[in-house]
Specification:
Helix content is 18%, strand content 29%. By secondary structure, it is of the alpha+beta class. Bound molecules: 8-OXO-2'-deoxyguanosine-5'-triphosphate. GO terms for molecular function: 8-oxo-7,8-dihydrodeoxyguanosine triphosphate pyrophosphatase activity; 8-oxo-7,8-dihydroguanosine triphosphate pyrophosphatase activity; 8-oxo-dGDP phosphatase activity; 8-oxo-GDP phosphatase activity; metal ion binding.
Length: 146
């Protein structure tokens, strides 16, 4: 597979209130592009050339939410640890927490902390629904996301 054909890696954070006993999950509402506007996602974005995934994640969260995060466990997906989200992109997701106050600075026009049992109550991007389900299951079964 040439570099051009290879899916682009997107990294994102499942921000929770507590990595050991997660109750609330942060969802972010996109305001662009038009096709995705109004849908909810995990904050994050594409890894730049020459950048490591974790480095990219800290950069994206700083740019998009204006906070520093502590990372917890990665939620591995079914394709070499990544989640297929479209033909062009695949996503790696880490649990995270912050002492800061996340703000919707660039990509998003709203943030919401989803309460326990209501993690699926917003209109997530299509590919994210299965990921949120897996995250909720993992948080419940493993007793945390550290
Ligand atoms: N950030 C993020 N993107 C997701 C999620 N689920 C999902 O399908 N995607 C898609 C939406 C976009 O097509 C793509 C990520 O692109 P992005 O627009 O967030 O990347 P970026 O911040 O680097 O954006 P840009 O500077 O290139 O505009 O992955 C998710 O939970 N979080």
């Amino acid at each position: 597979m040439s570099r051009a054909d290879r899916p682009v890696l997107v990294v994102a954070a499942a921000l929770v209130d507590d990595l050991d006993a997660p109750r609330r999950l942060l969802a972010a509402r996109r305001h662009r592009p038009t096709a995705l506007a109004g849908r909810w996602e995990f904050p994050g974005g594409k890894v730049d050339p020459g950048e490591g995934p974790v480095e990219a994640l800290h950069r994206e969260i700083r740019e998009e939410l204006g906070v520093e995060v502590e990372l917890g466990a990665e939620l591995p997906g079914p394709e070499d640890g990544a989640w297929p989200i479209s033909t062009r992109y695949r996503l790696r997701l880490w649990a995270a927490r912050t002492d800061g106050e996340p703000q919707p600075l660039v990509e998003h026009d709203a943030l919401t902390w989803l309460e326990p049992g209501a993690w699926l109550s917003v209109d997530w991007l299509d590919a994210d629904v299965a990921i949120v389900e897996a995250l909720a299951e993992r948080a419940r079964l493993a007793g945390g996301l550290r």
